[in-house]
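Hello, quick one for you while I still have it in my head. Could you read through the record and tell me how the tokens relate to the sequence? No rush at all, and the record is pasted right below.
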Amino acid sequence: MNTTPPNSGINEIVSNNYAKIKAIREKGIDPFPHRFRPTHKIAAAAKCPADTPVTIAGRMMLMRVMGKATFAHLKDGTGRLQIYVKKDVVGEEAYELFKKQMHVGDFLGVEGKLFVTHTGELTVGAEKLTVLSKSVRPLPEKFHGLTDAEARYRERYLDLISNEEARNIFIRRAQVVAAIRDVLNSDGYLEVETPVLCAQAGGASARPFITFHNAYKYELYMRIATELPLKKLLIGGFDGAYEIGRVFRNEGVDTRHNPEFTTLEAYKAYSDYNGMAELVESVFDKCRAIVGADTMEYNGHTINLKPPFRRLSLPEEWKARTGEDIHEVLRGKGFNRENLKRLASKLHVEHGADTTSAKIFDRIMDEKILGALVQPTFVLDYPTAVTPLAKCKAGDESLVERFEFFAGTEEIANAYSELNDPEDQKSRLVEQLRQQEEENNGEADILDKDFIEAMEYGMPPMGGIGIGIDRLCMLLSGKPSIREVILFPLLRPAEAEAAKQ
């Protein structure tokens, strides 16, 4: 019977490496010095000609000891470069310390001149070595990376060490966010920050996270959207404002949803939802340069990223897909619940007595319309009943000027011609309150009296948009799971995950 504790191998490695740290200190060397000043990043050093003196630093990813000489690879955030450490050059004491006390995973500083080996590989001939940080735990899977997805997300730092693709995803994500900022800043928008903790969770239909403020002794909500405070800024006189930041929704977790995620919300005075569609196309135009191509492989489809994009009328598509006029399920600014349930039954869309009207509508949309939207498409003109913050279509109070933008069947953006009539806005939010009470719709918009009061001071006509940064990065990285584009996605506690196994 094997009585060896399951972690005994790791424990022994850790113990041995702490002993190495002690041995280094006994030689009067600090294994964790305060600073080091490289002259070159590795990518820059790799472009220099032979005989150039360089000082580089990085993590050791490979080490081949060959008696009185050792080859190793150092890696920093820009690339990887070979070093050659020779006993006759660095000295016996330094070489023995390097050979016996250093190992893959350690951070090392190297000074020396570049040369080209007989195999043609550019290499730094080490003249001086500096221990920068001793690692204690071994890198995973013999340095080929974590293979289990759950482990990759839970220990993202290890994933980034060994998985070049993961590193590139997050570099691309940063580039995408920078590109969005460039587009907005050049068009006169002001970047701002709005509160994360709110007295009310408004601006979207979603369940909030609730917390408690000890000093004021009352409940606060983690924001579910940044819409209402941004609109107040345009009431205050800014012509355009935007925020890129985290929002929080106390909802399910799957490949498309994480309880905290990143959105762009932007509002521009004197614009409308057509102006917001132009903004989406400008963003995609900028992002094509980042991708380096006009197409992207996503979820088994080749997605065309080059604007202009198709515009689809929801009422027309609803008629084509369901066989009925969309107005049959609408009643003024609300739903005709009985007709909606009848249509759902006819289309074999799952629903029950307690399913809210908004949820039934969404399920019909998901099953009959949205699944076909592979190529980038603006779906225009939604029911007023599910969009309480947008202007009605001229001459039709049952529909609003709203689009959702889809690509790869995923919703990427949502935009309105924003409602700026305070009386109409109040009546819409009262209807949402009715849905909340009568249909037990915990995701309905709340009645924010402070926002209505702000509107009564006069709000300019405006276009507004929300773009899901994570969804956009999923598309532009070709990754159908949101966890691949969030550095630290929310996971079930490790103990609970182990128990589930």
User: Anything to note?
Assistant: The first helix runs from residue 8 to 26. The two ends are 24 Å apart (CA to CA).
